[in-house]
User: Fold this.
Amino acid sequence: MPRRPPRPGHLQNLSPLRIITQIAALQLLHYAIATALILFTALAAGKHFSLDLVLDWRSLRGDTTVGWTLGLCWVLDAGAGAISLLLLIARSKLVLDFALTLHALHLLVTSAYSHAVPTNLLWWGLQGVSAGVMVAGGVWACRWRELRPIEFGGGRGAKRRGDVAGEEGYELLGGRSGDV
Assistant:
């Protein structure tokens, strides 16, 4: 019995190895951007940089300037994560899965690094905001890319009628003016 052709919109190229590679690339990019932002703000503030600022949930506190600055860095990182989702994933229907997977893995990494599950409500709230920014920005960016008009032939197949005769609308090259 021959196989049926895939249905329209079927995601053919999502092998497990590709998905794992995309998750790893997204996670590494997430931590690279966060580390760069946190390193810059720590050096600009005259603070000593350590990996605790990136991976320990106890550094994110609401009663210190460093804690609020870290929160801002993580929100900016979420905005960059939306762009990363656009560049690496490029499908709006996959953005939610990848963004939530990234945050779940961040929870595991943070818990393993600090040897405790986060109990700080600010950390949990920040993760919710970060996931929301990544999902909303990623879905919007991917849909914007998916819904752009497709140009066939580089725009040479049609010309604006108004460019020639001062009228509105489009006409095919070589066609009569009344055919449109």
User: Anything to note?
Assistant: The mean pLDDT is 86.
